[in-house]
Amino acid sequence: MWPALYAAFIWEVSMNIFFKRIIAISPLLLSSALYASETASETEAIKLDAVTTSGIKDADWKPYASMLKGMDAYEKFKYHAPTAPLKFIIRPEKGRALIPGLALRIEDEGSSIAVPIAEDGTFVLPRDQALADKKAELVLNKPKGYRWSARILSANSSENAWRMGDMRLQCEVMVAINKDSLSFLARTALLAIDPCRSSLIHLVRELPHKSNELIAVYAGKREKVELSEDKGKIYFRIPLDNDKYPDDTLFEIQYPDQTAAK
């Protein structure tokens, strides 16, 4: 499975200390939910009882109307990744494994619609403007400690090859979903800088465990990408603002045995 990330789009409280330039509103715009690196062999399971309990509304889950705005952004900016479907993914915090038994619903005061969650944690939201108009909410039966994000994967993306256009589209979707939760001033500042193309915003991805190099492949070229390290983890700043990387650019993850063979 394509690994998700720890630190792109921190819509929560934590910020990576190596962000070099960041605007004041960015902690509200970025979230560790977007990506979460994990492999099945290295994760710790969270125990979760079979679900018959009532749902719990969590502040991390946005109103259904906000999720629809993300779906609208997906349609608007789909040219970045025309073959990639829009899915969402739910992950436990701290790299733990997803345990069967989660149940997600769209609820308003008079109705409830089940949203199936696949074994890999992905789900697809239906489009229902009537539910949005009724101020419906996404409700998950869960303990604390789960986060969600949009997931954009083109056919040529893989566990070890990240596509630039996928990351650009994912950024647009997440900004559209989260902007309504900002204050008026923060939202105005956000829209003024175009965060998915601005050098003022630094979004990062964590490389998988044991990888040591990242190669940008585009226009017949192969270029080594500058990485950052913090607390033993290696990060890649997503170059959303750099037009030299077309949407079809692949960032290939390298491991010691590959780099030693060069």
Your description of this structure?
The strands form 4 sheets. Strands 7-13-9-10 form a 4-stranded antiparallel sheet. The protein has helices at about 25-30, 65-75, 130-135, 165-180, 185-195, 255-260, and strands at about 85-90, 105, 110-115, 120-125, 135-140, 145-150, 160-165, 205, 215-220, 220-225, 230, 235, 250-255. A hairpin with a 4-residue loop joins β2 (about 105) and β3 (about 110-115). Residues about 1-60 have low confidence and may be disordered. It is globular. The relative contact order is 0.20. α2 (about 65-75) runs antiparallel to α4. The longest helix has 15 residues, at about 165-180. About 20% of the residues lie in helices and about 25% in strands. The chain has one domain. With about 260 residues, the protein is α+β, with helices and mostly antiparallel strands.
Summarize the structure.
By secondary structure, this protein is α+β, with helices and mostly antiparallel strands. The protein is built from six helices and 13 strands.
Topology:
Blueprint (H helix, E strand, L loop, with lengths): L25 H4 L34 H13 L9 E7 L10 E5 L4 E4 L6 E2 L5 H5 L3 E5 L4 E7 L8 E3 H15 L5 H10 L10 E3 L6 E6 L2 E4 L3 E3 L2 E5 L12 E5 L1 H5 L2
Antiparallel strand pairs: 1-4, 1-6, 2-3, 2-5, 7-13, 8-12, 9-10, 9-13, 11-12
Helix pairs in contact: 2-4
Shape: globular
**Secondary-structure content class:** alpha+beta
Counted up, domains total 1
Question: How many distinct helices?
Answer: 6
Strands, count: 13
Mean pLDDT score: 76
First-to-last CA distance: 26 Å
Task: Name the poorly predicted regions.
Answer: 1-59
Physical arrangement of strands within the biggest beta sheet: 7-13-9-10
Tell me the fraction of residues in β-strands, as a range.
15-25%
Q: Give, in order, the helices and strands.
A: HHEEEEHEEEHHEEEEEEH
